[in-house]
Amino acid sequence: MFPSRPRGPTRMAALLAAGLLLSACAALSPRAVSTDARIAALPTTGATVERPVTIRWNDHMVPWVDAETDRDLFYALGLVHGHLRGAQVALLRLVARGRLSEAAGPFATDIDHALRILDFGRAAPAVRAAWPEETRALMGSFTAGLNHAVMNGRAPPEFGLLGLSREPFTEDDLIAIGRLAGTDVNWLGYLALLPSRGTPGFDRLWQRTVAAGSSAPEAALPEGRRLAVIRDILAGTGRVGSNTVAVAARRSATGGALIGSDPHLGLIQPNVWLAAGMRSPSFHAVGLMVPGLPFLAIGRNADVAWGGTNMRAASSDLFDVSGLPAEEFRSHTVRIRQRLWFSAERQVRLTPHGPVVTDAAVLPRRPGDVIALRWIGHEPTDEITALLGAARARNGEEFRAAFDRFGVSAQNMIWAGRDGRIGQFYATTIPDRRAIPADPVLDARDPAATAPWGRLLRTPDLPHVVNPRDGVLASANNRPEPLGGRAPPVLGFFFSDSDRVERLRELLASRPRHTPADIMAIQADTRSPRAGRLAAALAARMAGIAEAAPLVAALHGWDGDYRAESRAPVAFEVLLARLVPLLAAEDRAEATTNRRAPESQWNFITAFLLRDLDALDPARREAVLREASRVAATDLAGLSTWGEMHRLPHAHALVNLPVLGEAFFRYGDYAVGGSRETPMKTSHGLVTARHNTAFGSMARHVSDMSDPDANWFTLWGGQDGWLGSAAFADQVPMWLERRSIRVPLRPETVAVEFPRATRLAPR
User: Fold this and answer.
1) Is 547 exposed, middle or buried (0-12, 13-18, 19+ CB in 10 A)?
2) For the chain, does the N or the C end have fewer beta carbons within 10 angstroms?
3) 619: DSSP letter
4) Taking the model in full, what pTM does it have?
5) 430 in helix, strand or coil?
6) How far is CA 280 from CA 65, 137, 492, 564, in A?
7) Degrees, nearest 5: CA angle 153-156-159
8) Are 71 and 143 in contact (CB under 8 A)?
9) Nearest 5°: CA angle at 485, between 483 and 491?
10) Which helix (H) or strand (E) covers residue 586, if one does?
11) Does the pLDDT of residue 23 top 80, yes or no?
12) What is the reported pLDDT for 646?
């Protein structure tokens, strides 16, 4: 089957394409499968439960598990995860373990080397050893249920296409997936900056980056297909975005506290979340789970509801280890299996300050750099125990206490209680930094640089607030703020612009009392106040410039609302796309058309665009505005509304496959509103033509604590990851029409709204 020796990239590509085509049929032309057929296919024979278990399903294949023991509950949850998302969890393991080459062949070898260096499973043995006995038992049951589904159910269609075989999961695999979900998004910001270190103007760039709080998920990484995959992995699996709002009972029209959460991640199928309900002696809750992990990350029980947004906290530091003595380096060889090709070997070096990330060929750096990454995710923190405890908290104090040993990814948690109170706190383990460093890379030989790692801060050490004066709370990845009268320590460098949180607070303040429908409307809001103000300021500066007349006319009176049917956002975006590179060239005294340069990020635009523009002498400022307006007006003439320009793609993760991906796994795109920092986030860079958003709002949750049944969820896509399933994309119309699925807590309501039942019986 294999040649005796490599014969170059053409031969390699031909082999890979042939292998894909030979095994692709089931995935490329999936058979339509009804909801009833998919539920009937759940492998119940041989399931090892102690007592009878009932799994109820609604029309959208949302499972609701009722068990008489906690262990049986988690066994059934694992079974459901394996049945609904077996292929997705298998792919997450390939990423977390650096095994993508087993499916993608030699294209992914350097990516796998980078992932082996990052080593998401490094802390797994220590994490497992420190688990309380209950966590150990529940995790063992969940893993057993997951493996029963994976090893006994039908192999997912993707397995043939990707050359995967059935393989049981270990608890260490699932911990590694959890650490992948807890990725530090600051890595994207670091990687964007590393190649520029030491160049003229870098110190100013770093200072401006920190001042702006440059938005890490949209960081300006260099071009390159393999690096783009790394960027998508780090931005698309970590909980990097999100909005969460809460309303105390005294500000609620229902008499109960309200909460709404909408995570922001990669807009790809299957969704990164699945909804579920559960009841056992210790657990009675509904919410959203990460496939392959046993906890509710977002949801509610009878007493507390919760949601979180990524703090963008810097749970990592980079260290220059080039000056360390040789004995402080440890090295080992990793073998990377490559599909349809020979195995490859790579070296991984470790230091007391973490793995040497500059050894990864795919990651950007300067020649000669020897830089290590120290990350809290390599330490034995315990997110699983924390979130299991949070799911059964009886009040806000118990909920916060559950996060005592929580580590990654750092979360800005908001809760709402049945008692009508609301609260907010920082959930993380983080180095105790006393100042922002002068350089993103620290000297490993400097005791002052390494000292914060000897003073780790945890959730109990950080500010929190209960029942704020105005009765509302909002979080949107913004720069950490004082809580309860206490200012936070230095928690990071890269944050979202304050635009989203400003708009959320504006909407919460717009009426004295809110309903669940109001919270749902907030989640669908498409207005950016800062965009409206910036557009007005630019229009004023362009007054009298003939070339700018069409743009000024289109922007007149615009309040920053990126409604799909509006034309003003088109004028604003094409103007930015033409103006920002010109200003960047003025600043660096060199020509540039790089629309992924740091200056292209929204944080930089809002912080520095007008300042840099006004710093030019009047004649030069007019010339820059005239040139940008001339080209932007031409762009505008060829475009219609924002929704026609700005598209929400519907595609499977396999859309990125060479040759086959675009043809078989892109299902379409839809006109969509929103922008980089609108509450309904649909992110994009600088754009002058029709484009797809790849990152943004992709799940919604609202709960009303006055009613145990008042919980609503929607996913961009569907519950079932099985290609061809009726529940694979049945929530797409609901998402577009802003409808939701109710997932109740009362057993009698569950029995009515989840009428299909699967029984698991003891042997």
Assistant:
1) middle
2) N
3) H
4) 0.94
5) strand
6) 8, 15, 39, 45
7) 125
8) no
9) 45
10) helix 568-588
11) no
12) 98
